[in-house]
Amino acid sequence: MADGRITVRKAQASDVVALKQLLQETFESTWLPHVTEASAQRYVQTDIGGRYVEKSWPEFTVAEIDGEIAGLIHWRGDFIEAAHVRTSHQGQGVGGRLLSHAEQAIRAAGFRQVRLETDTFNERAQSVYKAVGCVEKDRYPDDEWDSGFITVLFEKRLG
User: For 3-157, CATH number?
Assistant: First the structure.
């Protein structure tokens, strides 16, 4: 496990290219097999991931392994907006470290819970969230992808 080699830090402007690549990779490996062709084309043509990085990167926290961006996490208030781990680093503790870091910051900001979402097809993410103590709270249609997906809301109470 790479846990001892993981460095967690705030994102920097010099990370933007790598962050865009990370989102493209996770889109292709996680979402693309499940979204409609129209949704996939819209994602690519409107550069949803790239625009998200350009707008929000100053709020990102990244995990690095041996100088490479291995993952990112982004939260606002008590809600985790995004958590992505590069495919080559999945199963190495990156997601857990990023979630733990976010939980500490969210708790320090005075919140008593952390909330996040994924879709039902993303069983890997659900397993990670459950392993760190998150509990499923709700399910509802995922309007973001216009795909018929069901979104799963998770919550974890912070001590």
Answer: 3.40.630.30
Quick check: 120 and 152 in contact, CB under 8 A?
A: yes
Measured between alpha carbons, how far is 94 from 96 in angstroms, rounded to an integer? 5
**Residue 146 pLDDT:** 66
Q: Is 10 left (phi over 0), alpha (psi -120 to 50) or beta?
A: beta
Do β-strands 61-65 and 68-76 pair in parallel, antiparallel, or remain unpaired? antiparallel
| Residue 133 contacts residue 89 (beta carbons within 8 Å) | no
E strands within the chain? Answer: 6-10, 61-65, 68-76, 79-85, 113-119, 135-141, 150-157
Mean pLDDT computed over every residue of the chain = 93
